[in-house]
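All the exercises in this workshop are built on plain-text protein records. A record pairs a protein's sequence with a compact description of its fold. Backbone structure tokens are a discrete shorthand for how the chain folds in space. Once this layout is familiar, the rest of the handout is easier to follow. As an example, a complete record with its sequence and its structure tokens follows.
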Amino acid sequence: MKTPLLILGLVLATAAASSVQPAAQGPDGKALYNANCRKCHGVIGTPPKAMKAKFPKIPVFNAEFIASHSQDSIVKILTHGKNEDMKSFTKELKPDEMQAVAAYVHEIGAKH
């Protein structure tokens, strides 16, 4: 009689374990940055010389930039654009993806 109870217990434990789903992972800020921002802002947040020549006001994502730009302000720039040089990314990025990009910009800015 103990063997059927043991088997039943194992079946129930296996069923319970398989019903647990991993937590949903958020958007990959680095991948989104590389796909949408890297061309102009550079791999590590330093714009290439050609972009700096074309857009003199383009920022470097360094400690100074991070100190003066919260993640929310970066999302605002991604949403609305900034001057004639920085377009809105509402067609390319969803709000949660913009948050992920802003977090990644802060991450690379902290490394400068």
